[in-house]
Design goal:
The chain is mainly α. The chain has five helices and two strands, in the order αβαβααα. This is Toprim domain-containing protein.
């Protein structure tokens, strides 16, 4: 979903945490900041996932999936890391 479309995102009932993979540019930062504020107003924790470089696709192509998994594990809540990344987590 593009940064512009995040503004139209409707949070489903019961959602307590939302991870957003954002690009490392002004549009990505601004969109996530607005989403964090909207989420907080509704009691939702919005957690941005930050790429090492400019974006996650470039990181994946440069470093590979195992490196990317290791980079992400520290950005996730530990119980989410176990659930989302399975036996490959490194926490």
């Amino acid at each position: 979903m593009s940064a512009n479309h995040l503004a139209a995102l409707e949070f489903p009932p019961g959602l307590v945490r939302l991870y957003v993979a954002r690009d490392n540019d002004p549009a990505g930062r601004n969109a996530v900041e607005r989403l964090i504020a909207r989420g907080a107003a509704q009691g939702l924790e919005v957690r941005p996932l930050l790429p090492w470089g400019g974006d996650f696709n470039a990181d994946l192509l440069r470093f590979g999936p195992d490196w990317l998994r290791g980079h992400l594990v520290g950005q996730l809540v530990p119980e989410d890391a176990r659930r989302l990344l399975g036996p490959h987590d490194r926490d």
